[in-house]
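ENTRY TYPE: paired fold submission
RECORD: A
CONTENT: sequence, then structure tokens
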Amino acid sequence: MQVAELIATREFRVTQQEIDHPPPGQVQVRVQAVGICGSDLHSYAEGGVGDTPCQFPMVLGHEPSGAVVQTGAGVAGWSPGDRAALEPALYCYHCEFCRSGRHNLCADIRFLSTPGHAGFFREFVNLPAANLLAIPRSMPIELATMVEPLAVALHSLKFAALAAGETVAVFGAGPIGLLTVACLRLAGAGRIWAVEPVAHRREMARRMGADAAIDPHQIDAAGQIRNDTGQRGVDCAIDCAARPHTTNQAIRAARNGGRVVLTGIHSEAMVPFEVSPMRRKELALYNVRRSNHESEAALDLLVHHTARFAPLVTHTRPLDRIAEAFSIAGDYTDGVGKMVVTL
């Protein structure tokens, strides 16, 4: 099978590897599409994600969909040709966090696409049957790659704890930010501000449901949001960009007693927070780690609101052009929203 390996920062090679038959309880899947995530771009451009360096060569990609090839012993309910969104996280199911239902915090988690655990930029993969989520025949395989990032956005909304009509500012209108805007609109948010320096992403944010889109290179975003709210601030500020200035802009944009949700992943291991306004406002600060049992709800949203989410997938490239795909996605060029690698 073909496998795309990241062998150094900004350098891929496509190799040939073998794959065994699926063991008992597992399913072999022909991977057909994989979305490029922001954390993939961190690995590609920076050689790591936060304080976790890459271990080259490594296989990235954790937003996959595909079709069943064969099943291992003891697997029921799946047949060759069945299409599925694929879950990238392998849990132990025995630690205290798994037993309490917080599987995303599993003490022994293996997340495919992290160092030592190959991701999905490869033609075939063996997965536990529980990691497959059946998708409708009518769903484009590229759209099914949105299940994983949309689940992350839904998980962030648990911390946002949005009441109907509450105001929200979303910092960063990359794919996760755009999905967050769409989820907020469907959840009954009041006015939504999107803060994004890239012009075509601001326009996409408006199409996804933002009432206002601010260019932070042209204006103080937090100041504008405070002005728009009569100096009150928003009920919730969600940082999907994860830059030091965006986190602090979110802190400044939130109202007294408001919530700040950190969905994006910072490049730096240490990030300075403006603690004085955070303290004076008695803000609640929440951190998001991937998702936790939101995939079914994400798929349901994609099925019932296809017209809202489908336009986010703007670009595809085949596996042998993965370097081009990452270059476009990483540099925000060509009007890219979501880039999907097809196999």
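RECORD: B
CONTENT: sequence, then structure tokens
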Amino acid sequence: MKQSIKHLSALLLFAALAACSAPPRATAGSELLHDQLFAASDAAGEADDVFALSDEMQSYAATHLQFGPQQRDPRPALIEALYTQRQLGLSYDTSVTRNAAQAFSARAGNCLSLVIMTAAFAKHLGLPVSYRSVEADIFYTREGDLTMASGHVNLVLDRLGPLPRAASRLTPAPTAHEAMLVDFLPPQELRGTRSVTLSERTVLAMFMNNRAAEALNEGRLDDSYAWARAAVRQDPEFKAAVNTLGVVYLRAGHRPQAEAALRAVLAQDADNVAALSNLVRLVQQDGRQAEARQLGERLARLEPYPPFHFFDLGRAAMAEGNYAGAQKLFDRELGRQPLQHEVRFWAAQAAWHLGDAAKAADHLRQAMDNSPDPRSQAVYATKLDHLLDRFRASRLQ
């Protein structure tokens, strides 16, 4: 798969994006939680089921993940059974963050969902797993005034120690193996990147935080609070979840609580752009202009050009008929976000107006390749076909 494993985070807005067997720690973030401000929600009740295997998954494991005596290392067979087209035929879909059973049922998921599904099968087989956060470029998406920042995580099937129970009949018993990385990015895109080990607790907090951001985007504030609350309680040190909590409060009109959450993030990480951006917005809306100016200057030093800055300028240039100027601005945004499908679509329009049909078609192909779900892919495929038809018709005239 071309697309990366993604977990959402959000600025303002910027909202954001862990596991399971360990109980939530007594939390330093509990003073930031105000349950009385929201209606009760069962949304976060799914948290205990994130890694649970459905009956369908157990049947699949019994059929496809049984290893004979010759299978000294079951890990390659596990990946083969999950990720080859002749098996599940998984597709990439960021419309919702699914738990393991939901991703398997849909045969689709974003990369966090696919990591969770893979881990669930590995756990079922008794294989040791660990998780990594990869320091790759941040990918941004935007819905209204909510900007999502996506990072990249992957999964490691660790070295085999004692014989996994599903392979207990193997003879001779397998010895230690090298760890096996499971990643959905092409190897060349990972070259030179650094990674940091994540606890399963944080992976579950990421899942909860994704759900909070998705509910926030849909205007389901009570559900969003329930998920953000669960994420903060699961891993109080996961700053993205505290930032999301602040955005939920802000959306719900609870400004003092929002400010407390955002300042709690900045107390731990003074250069946290997401929390600082949200705080600037809050302080401006409160009319505290001197403080807003001071915070804004600090934000500008950290991030001179916010996400979609050149894209917005390019769209303004398009509206004025300045297609050459728009193309340069879109190219600058693509230099920062080469996989951003929406920018590719607008760059295709600029190229078409400039008479470069080949470049327009290339942008549309890349928009289709990097679109977030099958529906978007179909839309871009239709637009590409339409553009190519127009191009062929113009050449026949």
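NOTES ON RECORD B: The CA atoms of residues 81 and 87 lie 6 Å apart. The chain is about 50% helix and 10% strand.
STATUS: closed
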